[in-house]
Write a structure and sequence with these properties.
By secondary structure, the chain is α/β, with parallel strands linked by helices. The protein has 5 helices and 12 strands. Strand 11, helix 5 and strand 12 form a beta-alpha-beta unit. The mean pLDDT is 95.
């Protein structure tokens, strides 16, 4: 049964800069003491009447007393400014958990995950949750960035692929410098090449609307039903 949406207070425990414009923050729950959620969900932070910003949870449900949020602060809006200004010890308020972009363990289909830049956050939570609790089946992640600096969790997915052989990781960038060992191009192109058949496949796609639409079009052209493509739109 999904966790009930509740009003929460938490204390900022730590802040990390994962990339030039990507920040990660740990929040220790104060009220309530625990925060149950499903991997892939998000919380909302209020900025006045009818003004809220959503932040996907990067951590997994294993930890209920502390959650980790991750955000791209490049846009410079009210949410970006708030996230940039967070300091250790600060008390913040949010509401959650919210969202249906969660993995269905009862579904026997093999999952394909496709993420664009900061859209990786809910997928990161899902994948680590699956690894911590038993992946049980092969899974593939295609993670796209305009260049490697926008792929905040690139290194850890390489570790995950080595540690959990059923997991396949395909990083892809549009522009890369010397030493890049992944794919080059666009996410939809890599999906087209890496997925010869959609039989027995379900897709979880997260990022910008344009990328989601292109990936969905590629998969549907191969015969996938529209409802077999789950998505989370960030912009």
């Amino acid at each position: 049964m999904p966790a009930k949406v509740v009003q929460c207070r938490a204390r900022v425990e730590a802040i990390r800069r994962l990339a030039p414009e990507i920040l990660e923050v740990d929040l220790r729950l104060l009220e309530p003491a625990e925060f149950p959620f499903e991997a892939g969900q998000w919380v909302s932070v209020p900025f006045g009447p009818k003004r809220v910003r959503a932040y996907s949870i990067a951590s997994t449900p294993v930890s209920r007393r502390q959650i980790t949020l991750c955000a791209d602060v490049a846009p410079g809006g009210i949410g970006s400014k708030w996230f940039r200004a967070l300091t250790p010890g600060q008390v913040v308020e949010f509401k959650g958990p919210t969202g249906g972009f969660v993995f269905n363990r009862a579904d026997p289909r093999r999952p394909l995950f496709v993420a664009e830049e900061i859209g990786i956050v809910p997928i990161r939570s899902i994948l680590w949750d699956l690894c911590q609790t038993g992946l049980g089946r092969p899974a593939t992640l295609i993670y796209w960035g305009r260049d490697p600096s926008w792929m905040a969790y690139h290194a850890e997915f390489g570790v995950m692929a080595r540690r959990y052989p059923p997991f396949e990781y395909l990083p892809v960038v549009r522009d890369s410098g010397a030493g890049w060992q992944g794919e080059k191009g666009e996410a939809a192109d890599v999906v087209d090449r890496a997925v010869p058949s959609v039989k027995g496949l379900i897709a979880y796609v997260s990022g910008g609307g344009e990328m989601i639409n292109k990936v969905r079009a590629v998969l549907m052209a191969k015969g996938m039903e529209r409802k077999a493509v789950r998505w989370e739109k960030f912009w």
